[in-house]
């Protein structure tokens, strides 16, 4: 079995979390397995080993779990993109639509420099609204988003279309 197949098998489906009708993809069995966690991080690292990535930006909160390990391995800086109100210094922020209502994410104004090559990471691509807002923040600050990477893509939600034409990669697709 390939490591991608093993990761796919380990992801746990939790029905009706956090609310009725949502099938939640629980990645904690992947995080808790030494070989699978390492394999997941290495999938991202090996894609970008020679890409000259200067910063890895990752999205609150499960994006941090992979983004920090990937940044360390790539010898890149780490940029946390957080839910609005969590970052202490001046921020750029971006609102985006949820199924019901809106949400807002933020990044420190000096988190990336114009022209910096940034890899954006989150755990899961659903409708794409969160990653699109994160990419827009990085682009507002003048960074180049080299690729947006996810451990999991829910392809039937067509989040990829929202992120086009930015390069997208997902390790495991449902
Ligand atoms: P979206 O903006 O719709 O692409 O949603 C992506 C964000 O919501 C990611 O940060 C995911 O962690 C989370 N998310 C959305 N749907 C799910 C799901 N079915 N299972 C686990 N996480 C999800």
Task: Give structural notes.
The protein is of the alpha/beta class. α3 packs across α4. The model has no long low-confidence stretch (mean pLDDT 97). It has a 7-stranded mixed β-sheet with strand order 5-6-4-3-7-8-9, sandwiched between helices. A two-stranded antiparallel ribbon has the order 1-2. The structure holds adenosine monophosphate (AMP).
Topology record:
Blueprint: H1 3-10, E1 12-15, E2 23-26, H2 28-31, H3 34-48, E3 55-59, H4 62-74, E4 77-83, E5 91-97, E6 102-108, E7 117-125, H5 129-140, E8 144-153, H6 159-163, E9 168-173
Parallel strand pairs: 3-4, 3-7, 7-8, 8-9
Antiparallel strand pairs: 1-2, 4-6, 5-6
Helix pairs in contact: 3-4
Bound molecules: adenosine monophosphate.
From the spread of the alpha carbons, the general shape counts as globular
Mean pLDDT: 97
What structural category characterises the helix and strand content?
alpha/beta
How does CATH name the architecture? 3-Layer(aba) Sandwich
Instruction: Give the bound compounds.
Output: adenosine monophosphate
What order do the helices and strands follow? HEEHHEHEEEEHEHE
Query: What's the level 1 CATH class?
Result: Alpha Beta
User: Helical content, roughly?
Assistant: 25-40%
Please give the oligomerization state of what you see.
Answer: single chain
Number of domains: 1
Strand content: 25-35%
Radius of gyration: 15 Å
Task: Count all strands and give the number.
Answer: 9
Largest sheet: 7 strands, mixed
């Amino acid at each position: 079995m390939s490591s991608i197949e093993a990761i796919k098998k380990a992801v746990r489906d939790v029905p009706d979390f956090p609310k009725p009708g949502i099938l939640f993809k629980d990645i904690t069995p992947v995080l808790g397995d030494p070989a699978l966690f390492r394999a997941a991080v290495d999938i991202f690292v090996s894609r970008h080993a020679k890409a000259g990535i200067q910063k890895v930006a990752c999205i609150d909160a499960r994006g941090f779990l992979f983004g920090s390990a990937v940044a360390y391995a790539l010898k890149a800086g780490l940029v946390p993109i957080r839910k609005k109100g969590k970052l202490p210094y001046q921020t750029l922020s971006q609102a985006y639509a949820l199924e019901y209502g809106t949400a807002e994410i933020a990044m420190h104004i000096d988190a990336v420099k114009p022209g910096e090559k940034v890899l954006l990471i989150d755990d899961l691509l659903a409708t794409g609204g969160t990653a699109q807002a994160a990419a827009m923040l990085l682009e507002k600050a003048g960074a180049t988003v080299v690729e947006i990477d996810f451990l999991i893509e829910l392809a039937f939600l067509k989040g990829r279309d929202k992120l086009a034409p930015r390069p997208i990669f997902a390790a495991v697709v449902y």
